[in-house]
Amino acid sequence: MTKNNVDLTVFYNFITDNNAIGIHAINTLGQTIIYNDKMKKIEGLNLDDMSDRSILDVFRFSNAEESTLLRVLQSGNEVLNIKQTYWNQNGQEITTINDTYPVIEDGHLVGAIEFSRDITTLEKLVHQPLQRYGESITFDSITAVSTAMRRVLQIANKAAIARLPVLLIGESGTGKDLVAEGIHHATEPELNDFITVYCNRADPQIITKLNEQLQHLEKSTIFCERIEYLTMLQQQELVDLLADYSGEHLFIASVGNDPIDLIAEQQLLKELYYFFAAMSITIPPLRERLDDISPFIQSHLARYRRVFGNQLKGVTNEVEQLFNHYDWPGNLKELEVLLDEMGTMISTEEYITYDLLPHHFKLKVQEYRENTTFHAEDFVIQAEQELMPLDHYLREAEAYYLNKVLDKYGHNITRAAEALGMSRQNLQYRIRKMKST
Ligand SMILES: Nc1ncnc2c1ncn2[C@@H]1O[C@H](COP(=O)(O)OP(=O)(O)OP(=O)(O)O)[C@@H](O)[C@H]1O
């Protein structure tokens, strides 16, 4: 393609490669033909993973309906403004808005193209703080059933009493923000305001603005969220500011990684770390405190029932097992986003079954599920198979059968017990026994 005798292909390639929008295009066979650098960053995949391969192969889609690109290819209709939050292979939280279009040439469909706008920063700085408006977070609002999390809250309570600077260390979504606000409300007498500073390096005036704000504040809590996101210069400005105001206010900061590593990687200023290090609280990732998953789901679903009036009571055993084996790179926030996503699809269901899980989550747990789910053929004796003791075999067979029946009846105990020809109490007893083995 040329214009004024200039080959435009080179310009089009440049536009594709130097663009703030992720672009992914496929042909009618589902093969990737364009996958730009921005899309690579967003999805955390390599071009080599994608080129010359059918999108079906790469993602192992079990159902073409579930890929927007393939859906558009099949229907010929555009799908616009789909918002998604997920954690890519590097454990980074990403929020995108996607538009997917059919590509038509001379009246014939020749492929489909997806444009993905990365709105992660906008989401973090604007939408999430807005969502939390009106809700005051105390230690009671934080799910802390695991020993590790109860310990975190104990130390946080001590920090509130001591009113010393606090450093909260933990991966994205572990609840640092909540613990900071919990500390604020646990101070006695309670400090006046809880101010969150989203450490956005793109704002060169950020520390100057904080300085102006501090001049008008009396005895408040200042939470500097993710201080490692500031430039070194901004961090130095913050150190100077803290020295001026440390007697007046309670300062809390958070970091997403081990601060010693951050210092070694020159992402955190040593002096800033020293200021906060007196009280360091490490919040462990969710995969190291699985006991918190179930109570978090319970309290989240209870809120759903109150707000949306639906019937959701919990998740099936199968989903619970998958949750316990997934590594949750986005921690409780990822679980929350997942529940929210499913919440919008629920109408009359009482339990979240495997089928209700969003496709992107099914992909993440697919391998584990394939390796662990019992199949009917597991109970057939095969020549090469090692025999297991009878009581073990019966236990597994019972668990397999009970789970199947419970799933069939959406975990409605009364209906499942009826189908199994036993009392509700008997079924509940067997479920408890199954969970404890
Ligand atoms: N222990 C918890 N109890 C209840 N909700 C939680 C808990 N931990 C996280 N959440 C949920 O996850 C969301 C994100 O948590 P939060 O913003 O505190 O994470 P964070 O560690 O500050 O993450 P980031 O480093 O990305 O800012 C919260 O708004 C809350 O809804």
From TrEMBL:
Keywords: ATP-binding, Nucleotide-binding, Transcription, Transcription regulation. GO terms for biological process: regulation of DNA-templated transcription. Residues 142-344 form the Sigma-54 factor interaction domain. The keyword RNA-binding does not apply. One of its GO terms (molecular function) is ATP binding. It comes from the Bacteria. The keyword ATP-binding applies. This is Transcriptional regulator. The lineage of its organism: Bacteria, Bacillati, Bacillota, Bacilli, Bacillales.
